[in-house]
Design brief:
Layout: H1 7-14, E1 21-24, H2 32-44, E2 48-52, H3 69-80, E3 85-91, E4 94-101, E5 117-120, E6 123-126, H4 129-136, E7 152-153, H5 154-160, H6 163-170, H7 177-186, E8 190-192, E9 199-202, H8 204-210, E10 225-230, E11 238-244, H9 248-262, E12 265-270, E13 273-278, H10 282-295, E14 304-308, E15 312-318, H11 337-345, H12 355-365, E16 372-375, E17 379-385, H13 394-410, H14 417-424, H15 431-443, E18 447-449, E19 462-464
Helix pairs in contact: 9-10, 10-12, 12-13, 13-15, 14-15
Pfam family, one: HATPase_c_4
Protein name: MloB
Organism: Bifidobacterium vespertilionis
């Protein structure tokens, strides 16, 4: 089987290795058992591709592995029970193989010789008991894996989904129709109809990412991003209210741009030049909104609501988090992994687990109040406030100190009196005040002094509570 031209391969090379893509040099051969383990891992992760004949630095070197691809396909089926298929690409005289690995059957993860495998960075390891339990307990596809009603010819699919937007955001040229179909099948945006290979179902994932209008898809039409600007403090008095009812790939950047346009602006003068400074960092706004899109609970009704006021921005998504808010910085967790992966591929959000961290870094760089995470009955709200140290109450200061400690620990460092003074933009003469704040945060059980500095006030440094054994603490 041959890929239509080299476009498909170049599309793979334009990105990086991900949950569904693995590159291998395999200049001469590739170990058969190792291949089985990789196929097992990819299948359990939702399916994906292995590309043979490409080096770690994304150079096409060619491969002589698997000279009889049909035989290897049969071998994989006999040993794993899944039907993988090879595609052969002639890249300027170099042979490159792309192995397509299907997802495992729901509730029946793929195993090799009685063992379940998962990828961890560049290596393979036995699947964790927690992940295996998740796969075994799968009873049905996730909300985003379900199809929207109706099988359609490709021309109608393109009229409903902005396929060109995917290539625009990934930095690739728009390929021919066969390559578009192959890419959207690989991304799980569409599914080919079993009764007619010329027809396709649009999956909810494809709709929520690429829909030209969410109103064309009843199952996701209420998942739009809504941006509101309050005239005062009352949520009933708004000077701006707009619903961005297109797929996130089309609506996200417009919505973020609009939010920034609604944020209050201050004028500053530096070296005789006038500069406009917005009250909230654009990076922080983008990451918080992206985080709300990724972590919404599709079992709950509603979309992403962003409310801009004179002193704060509140971002609300449906659903409550499955991890405590006190662990938002250190825990790597995504409720909707397929959506998160798609948004990352289109460069709309940060790599896994780094969005909140990056938002915090930008907020701390501006010396303003830390985000407040509030879990309600059926929704979660993140509030950004522009207040500085003197504007914060005791609760806000403790929250900022704790999140600073989490961010320092995530970077391999510690909270110290000096680092916290820098975070708040305070002079050295405020050391005693900062020490009192640290003591209050310790009293709350949110941080503790590193035992290596026990007995020393001058050298004291602190870590978040989760770095030692003990129960969780909620803010």
């Amino acid at each position: 089987m041959t890929v239509s031209g080299i476009d498909g391969l170049l599309q793979f090379l334009s990105g990086s290795e991900s949950r569904r893509l693995e590159f291998k040099t395999a200049a001469r051969q590739f170990d058969s058992d190792k291949l089985m383990r990789y196929c097992c891992a990819l299948s359990c992760e939702g399916g994906g591709e292995m590309v043979f004949g490409v080096s770690d630095d994304r150079r096409i070197v060619g491969t002589q592995a698997f000279p009889d691809t049909a035989r290897t396909e049969r071998d994989i089926y006999n040993r794993l029970g899944i039907r993988c298929t090879f595609e052969t690409v002639d890249a300027d005289g170099r042979r490159v193989l792309i192995l397509h690995v299907p997802r495992s059957i729901v509730g029946h993860p793929t195993s090799f010789e009685g063992q379940y495998w998962m990828r961890n960075g560049e290596s393979l390891e036995f699947m964790s008991p927690e992940r295996l339990r998740e796969l075994l307990n799968e009873a049905a596809p996730s909300f985003l894996d379900e199809n929207e009603p109706g099988a359609r010819p490709w021309g109608e699919v393109v009229s409903l989904l902005a396929v060109e937007r995917y290539y625009e955001l990934t930095g690739a040229r728009l390929p021919n129709e066969d390559s578009q179909i192959r890419d959207l099948l690989r991304l799980h945006f569409v599914e080919r109809a079993a009764f007619d290979p010329t027809l396709f179902y649009i999956r909810r994932l494809g709709a929520i990412v690429l829909a030209r209008s969410l109103r064309d898809f009843p199952d996701v039409e209420h998942r739009a991003i809504r941006v509101m600007r309050l005239r005062g403090r009352s949520v009933t008095d708004m000077s701006f209210d707009r619903v961005y009812d297109r797929g996130y790939a089309l609506a996200f950047f417009d919505a973020v741009e609009q939010i920034n346009a609604l944020v209050p602006v201050r004028e500053t003068f530096e070296d005789g030049l006038r500069r406009e400074l917005r009250d909230f960092p654009e990076v922080a706004i983008r990451e918080i909104v992206a985080n709300a899109c990724v972590h919404q609970d599709f079992r709950e009704h509603g979309g992403i609501d962003v409310t801009v006021g004179d002193h704060a921005i509140a971002v609300t998504n449906p659903g409550v988090p499955e991890i405590p808010v006190s662990r938002f910085v250190d825990e790597v967790y995504e409720r909707n992994e397929s959506l998160a992966e798609a948004l990352r591929m289109m460069r709309m959000c940060e790599k896994r687990g780094s969005g909140i961290d990056r938002a915090l870094e930008n907020i701390e760089g501006r010396r303003i109040d830390a985000p407040e995470f509030v879990v309600k009955t059926r929704s979660t709200t993140v509030t950004l406030r522009k207040g500085r140290f003197d504007d914060m109450g005791a609760k806000e200061r403790v929250n900022a100190a704790y999140l600073h400690c989490c961010l320092q620990a995530a970077k391999g460092g510690f909270l110290t009196n000096a680092s916290l003074r820098v975070r708040f933009g305070l002079a050295k003469g405020k050391s005693a005040l900062v020490s009192q704040l640290i003591a209050s945060t310790v009293e709350r059980g949110l941080i503790f002094q590193d035992p290596a500095t026990a007995g020393s006030r001058r050298m004291a440094r602190y870590l978040p509570f989760y770095y030692r054994d003990g129960g969780d603490v909620r803010l």
